[in-house]
Write a structure and sequence with these properties.
heterodimer; A: alpha+beta; Ubiquitin-like (UB roll); five-stranded mixed β-sheet; two-stranded antiparallel ribbon; 7 strands; 18% helix; B: alpha/beta; Rossmann fold; eight-stranded mixed β-sheet; globular
């Protein structure tokens, strides 16, 4: 599956400044593994041993994957994945 | 528009409202202006910082001559002038103190809604917890560099900060002191916070439960539904007291 991944500003140092990158995978886990191959270090910023890091939200299109099947959420061609981290400044 | 027509525009639901503003930074300055101009009856401005030169590009209630003076006091002076010009009678109070676990619930007392624009995660989670315990609706936001978010919560009814972001992040995070934040981002998000606050005060509960994300680069505003999480300790009632150990030290002093 060809997936479009939206990269938040804090992680763009790992994607050469790109705000959107293509990735492949049939579920979110595979997409993150594919991202890690192309942009080493990205997976660690998104996941820990328990799964998606706290203070990071991942959306399939506009739906939080925690309310779908988490990292096993199935994807279809053309889906978007968005990463939304917590931000504190004000 | 004349002063008299501006005066008549104030909604009774707003003139009765008592709002607590936590943080008179970029978000707080933008939101407070809108709330006071809209005719909110009472606003308490809570901030223990002083105005610094680096604040002025985004904290629009302050000018060069305010540097070194308490933000809460200066903000209330400026807001009082805005209210006067708009023909509103607003009860404006400055509190030059930091919200802490030991004072948070008392500070909330007497307020119908809290608008939080603090500059650190510890305060954000502390205010979320205190509002849940006191059952006070809350509108929160955060911003760094060119991006930010805002979320309105009605305790017990919609997703809270812990449903969405769980807990104070570990490790190094971007803060506005280290990374900076541009004026238009806090201006836009502060205004969005005010819009959500006005909707809640008017009884529109649909304002809660949506996470708004704004990115000035490349230029997107997204609104995503967020739901209460069964495992959220705050919504499940497992946070009954505001213990100091639960909140990391503040990360951003400017």
């Amino acid at each position: 599956m060809a997936i479009n991944v939206r990269i938040p500003t804090p992680l763009r140092t790992l994607t050469g400044g790109k705000d959107e990158v293509p990735a492949k995978g049939s579920n979110v886990r595979e997409v993150i593994d594919d991202l890690e191959r192309n942009y080493p270090g990205l997976k660690e910023r998104l996941c820990d041993d328990k799964g998606v890091r706290r203070f990071v939200n991942i959306y399939q299109n506009e739906e939080d994957i925690r309310f779908l099947d988490g990292l096993d959420t199935a994807l279809k061609d053309g889906d978007s994945i968005s990463v939304v981290p917590a931000i504190a400044g004000g | 528009m004349t002063a008299s027509t501006r005066r008549s525009a104030a909604d009774p639901a707003l003139t009765r409202a008592r709002v607590l503003l936590v943080g008179a930074g970029g978000l707080g300055c933008a939101a407070a202006r809108v709330l006071v101009e809209a005719g909110v009856g009472a606003l308490t401005v809570l901030d223990d910082d002083c105005v610094e030169l680096s604040n002025l590009q985004r904290q629009t209630l302050f000018t060069d001559r305010d540097i070194g003076h308490a933000k809460a006091t200066i903000a209330v002076e400026r807001l009082a002038a805005l209210a006067r010009d708009a023909g509103h009678t607003s009860d404006l109070v400055a509190r030059e103190i930091r919200v802490l676990p030991e004072n948070a619930r008392n500070l909330l007392t007497g307020h119908d809604l809290v608008l939080e624009g603090a500059d650190n995660f510890a305060t954000k989670f502390l205010v979320a917890d205190a509002c849940a315990l006191n059952r006070v609706p809350l509108v929160q936001a955060g911003a760094v560099r060119w991006v930010g978010w805002t979320l309105a919560n009605i305790p017990g009814r919609s997703a809270c900060l812990r449903c969405v972001f769980e807990d104070v992040p570990s490790g190094q995070q971007d803060t506005c002191a280290a990374a900076g934040v541009i004026g238009p981002v806090v201006g836009a998000l502060g205004a969005l916070q005010a819009a959500l606050a006005l909707r809640l005060l008017r009884g529109d509960e649909t304002a809660a439960g949506e996470l708004w994300s704004y990115a000035a680069l490349p230029g997107t505003l997204r609104r995503r539904p967020v739901r209460r999480q069964a495992r959220c300790p705050l919504c499940a009632g497992r946070i009954a007291e505001l213990e100091l150990s639960r909140y990391a030290p503040p990360e951003c002093a400017a």
